[in-house]
Amino acid sequence: MTAETALFELDAQSIIDDAIHSAARTYALHIVLARRQHLTVGRLGDFTFPAGRYIYTGSARKNLAARVKRHLSTDKKLRWHIDYLLASPSASVVLVQLFDKDECLVNQHHGGVVVVPRFGASDCRQGCGSHLKRLS
Ligand SMILES: [Zn+2]
C-alpha cells in the first residue's frame, strides 16, 4: 500500500520518535492474542476474542506520538475499546504502522473479519463496521 509511510519492528521508543517526526495521522496496531479471551469492552459489552492476529486502526490529528505511546503503555486507565483488549495479558502489540491517509481508508484496506461490531468505530462515518479486524 503506497499510503504506508513507515513500518517498524516493535521498538517502542523508535516508534514514538518516528511518530513525532512523521506527518502521519493514522496508525495501525498489529496485535497477537495468544489465547482465546472473554473480555468486557466497556459499554460495548462482553465478547469472545478468538486467539490470532488482529489489526486495530486509529488516528490522532495531534500528538500521534503520544497516542501510540499510550497504546504501548500498560500503565493507564481503560478508556478506549482497544484499551480493554490490550489490557489482556494474552495480548501483545507486535507491529505499529503509520499512515498519512484517513483511518477508515486504511482500515478498509486491511482484510480480516469483524469480531466485535463498532469496536473503536464509535465516530466512524465511513461504514467500516469496526476498526478492529481479526486476520487469522
Ligand atoms: Zn471507519
Your description of this structure?
With 136 residues, the protein is α+β, with helices and mostly antiparallel strands. It has one domain. Helices cover 24% and strands 32% of the residues. It has helices at residues 12-21, 64-72, 81-86, 103-109; strands at 4-9, 26-33, 37-41, 45-49, 52-59, 91-99, 132-134. The strands form 2 sheets. A 5-stranded antiparallel β-sheet has the order 1-6-2-5-7. Strands 3-4 form a two-stranded antiparallel sheet. A hairpin with a 3-residue loop joins strand 3 (37-41) and strand 4 (45-49). Helix 1 runs antiparallel to helix 2 (64-72). The chain starts with a strand and ends with a strand. Mean pLDDT is 88; it is low at 1-9. The structure holds zinc ion. Zinc ion (ZN) binds at residues 104, 107, 121, 124, 126, 128, 131.
